[in-house]
Amino acid sequence: SGRLVARLPEWSPQVLGIHAGYASRRQMPPALRALLDFLVERMAADPHWDEAGPLALA
């Protein structure tokens, strides 16, 4: 049927965090800004990430 089948339903993977570090600058490169915005948007849409706390950019 094309559907995924859970083979180990009693097991769940370890939850890992994602950290983004970058040098402090007055002007952030547009590519870096776009990447950080993308990550925040994607993770904020997944309720699983709410358990770790709020997402914020400096």
UniProtKB/TrEMBL annotation:
It comes from the Bacteria. This is LysR family transcriptional regulator.
